[in-house]
């Protein structure tokens, strides 16, 4: 990756820098859309009123005269507050009749013309108007915004529905394109009124017919078949698509029908069959090994094509892989396989010290060239072909990630590729000067502990994917979660400075100096757990920067001798870091300062450490044990946190960064 170079050319005319050069200077490519907000007040003194009003709105289900007046009064009082447009758009979306968009569209279009919150509001209200046949409201707003406004697809469908139903002039080609987009993107809920109106006006053309066919083929699965059923009016417009839709419904509802046909020459029907082999395998069920043999007999004696037969059996083995006895899987896996079952078989063979090279050689080309399987191919060939094994390890050594580190350790060579991933971040723009409203609004949302809102506003900046100035700004302002989010969205996997800020440096340093856990390993855990979003909450009810569940947090706090009053404590970064670092030290102390085992305990619970060590019974090397961790999530977690630890050591200037401790590497597991 080439480092993005900022051109700091500034053209001055009469002492004023041109806005076109601002884009060059900052790497922000939508400056003209963002600059109008600079004219607004930056008042941040009405925080309490804003929070109370937000709660007031969230608790309201409907508006009566009194509550509407109360809400209008509150909004007027907040008009100069920095987050006024946020609360305003929330109100418009929730009460589109009482707070009609047309009353506020000039304000939004003047100061926030293309922001996500403006466009989301247009989407929500236009959809409401379209579903309620209030086409006049749509038309009035379109007159203000113009036909060339960059509407989202939901809004385009609403506008199209309005044009078709209100007698206004429309462009057939434009509507045709919207129709095709709605089907391709599965916008069935938000575009249903438009789709029906388009059909009622007899506008279906040849490109639409093709789009309908593609829609049927792309949704002929168990989870999506209802989309096809809902569009029966559309799919039945011609014989070919009607027949295809009926076949899709039949196959999804009774996948055994696949076995009655050989569609080797009928591409569309074959595609539907192929999409439902997993459905067929799943509905057959599994009680014992005999069911696999029965399924193989059933499929191989059927009329289905050879490719469908092989795929169906492979899917059956994949679905039931850990239910079928290992010996029976081994008997059939080289004939009926998917990449997933081959990888599972490789891990099983590694765990039992059995040969596995034959499975690697059956993987798809993409998977074979993955650094993980190149590494294990090299390991499998070390005895029979040490020269080629070394060449493969050298290849892995030049790749980023955990297996590059393993290759370095195995070869006893420095991991030089990391040096090509360390870039200086681009100069941070002066957002306070250039985009004052956005800078202050983001900071205000963060001050309110509303990281979701801060991220929502942050995403309005459009940048060149290689540009890291905004990321730099976020790190300089201790808004680490914003920069990490940008590094992910921009695909900066090989820019370590963009991905791994030295977040909460002093807190981690002070917290870990008297603990067993290192600063960089504690930071690596936090980075993996929350991507530095201190307000994060997972689906498993884990909270905060270090993602504690309530019970573990309470127990750790008790061990530390500090107060714990509830999950609200976990949203405090300093508290979370103290608690998380202490818990990591407990895990390290219990496991001979072994970071890999501590990471397992942090992610999957301490019981899993002893359980998996008992399973391996001291037979596995470090790399083998990691590769055979039973849970995919935990395996990836271990690989990520150990890699992040090393990257952080490099970024923070450690003189001798450690890949793996000798005590971790040299022991048996």
Automatic annotation (TrEMBL):
Transglycosylase SLT domain sequence ranges: 513-619
Name of the protein this chain belongs to: Transglycosylase SLT domain-containing protein
Single annotated GO MF: hydrolase activity, hydrolyzing O-glycosyl compounds
Keywords on record: Signal
GO CC list: periplasmic space
CDD domains: Slt70-like (cd13401)
UniProt-listed Gene3D superfamilies: 1.10.530.10, Bacterial muramidases (1.25.20.10)
InterPro entries per record: Lysozyme-like_dom_sf (IPR023346), Lytic_TGlycosylase_superhlx_U (IPR008939), Transglycosylase_SLT_dom_1 (IPR008258)
Family under the similarity heading: Belongs to the transglycosylase Slt family.
Entry-linked Pfam families: SLT (PF01464)
Position of the signal peptide: 1-25
Species whose genome carries this gene: Psittacicella gerlachiana
